[in-house]
Amino acid sequence: MSIARLTLPRHAEPIHGALTLPGSKSETQRALILAALADGSSIVRRPSESRDSALCVEALRTLGIAIDDAAAGVWTVAGRGGEFDVLRGTLDFELAGTSLRFCLPLCASTPRGSDIVVTGNDRMRERPIGDLVAALLAAGADIEEQARSGCPPLRVRGVGRLRGGTIGVCGRTSSQFISALMLAASRFDRPLTLEIRDPVPSWSFVEWTAEVSERFGVPCRVDRERIEIEAHPPRATVIDIEGDGAGASYFWGWAALSGGRIRLSPLRPDSRQGDVRFAEVLERMGCDVSASTAPDEEPWIEVGGPGTLGAIDVDLSALPDTAQTLAVIAAFAEGTTRIRGLESLPFKETDRLRAMVDELGRWGIEARSTRDSLEVIGDPRAFASRRDLVVRTHGDHRMAMAFSLLAARTSVTIEDPEVVEKSFPSYWERLSSLGVESDVRE
Q1: Structural domains in the chain, sorted by start
Q2: CA distance 187 to 222
Q3: Is residue 292's pLDDT more than 80?
Q4: Over 80: is that where the pLDDT of 441 sits?
Q5: DSSP labels for 361-377?
Q6: Considering 92, 131, 275, 321, which one is annotated as catalytic?
Q7: Which residues contact residue 220 at a Cβ distance below 8 angstroms, ignoring those fewer than 6 apart?
Q8: What is the average per-residue pLDDT within 135-151?
Q9: pTM confidence score
Q10: How far apart are CA 97 and CA 120, in angstroms?
């Protein structure tokens, strides 16, 4: 069944509850790449079952990696120590930017004779990847752009191991370019040193890549100008995936707007996952935040909503995927909220800065953007006289989930609600478990 629209009637009561989050999409994909490169079988427990993760699994299988995902919540990855099959064909990553970036160095290091077209959907073919391609070319890769300069589709011919040593890389557009090279370090012929040429947004995700790599036995020395990684294969291991921090932001947003309390696990307050810090952002707006890492239970973080939300000035460069959530919450805060550090948002599933300004503006909320920031003029009485709002998702999963928060104050209809399958397929079901009603139209 294809769902064209999903309507959420206004939920006037505070929302209280506790949820176990699905596994982090970002950590799952890092673990999959390292497990594929390991010598032996790794176990990935509580993986993200998002469409993006499925596309990463499909790509690795096409490269010759056996992955058993038959058991619920437990995937077994039979690593081959970096050996891949000769591949001739196309890898279509649809809109899974992380999967494409992380798999590109692997494609480049397939055996000679491989000839692979790496592509995606129309929007993916507009998303820049030129800085990662440039770094791989410097390492001896054979990659040709097939259409738009600096974007997929790319024709990749296998060259075997890439040249290690010192390689310069620009990560201003996406920190994932750096992470992709770090994860593929064992496919280089000697230790890899990455010289970082410019300030990197979402730097916490680079640190997170280093942390996950070290859990697979790959030591990393990381600072903001230089990263050093050994070139030996990862060690097969068992890894438990943390809850998805970006997914957590929506439920904490429901608590903030409804005046309820929502506890989410498994989330560590000291996580390298930048999105987990969204709870601290809400605390600055007046929410109550508590957490536990007690040894007899899963770690959790709980957010309680205040009577009135206050505007803030905040840098979200470490957690840009939460910007849309904050923008919707800010629409109901007292004063002007300024969100900075958003230079990567125009290159996401949609131009998220433009989409947020457009959608908020359609309903009378003044918002304006620059190339790397967003301002929202809040009004605690926003939408009080409006009913049956229809939100365009712009093909972006995070637009759908962020704007669902409007139902804490008014009824709202989400176009193309199935777009959430990209990162959080069970989002609407989880929301329903908290008592939020919905009406589906095919």
Answers
A1: 5-19+244-441 (3.65.10.10), 27-239 (3.65.10.10)
A2: 19
A3: yes
A4: no
A5: HHTT--EEE-SS-EEEE
A6: 321
A7: 182, 209, 210, 213, 214, 227, 228, 229
A8: 95
A9: 0.94
A10: 9
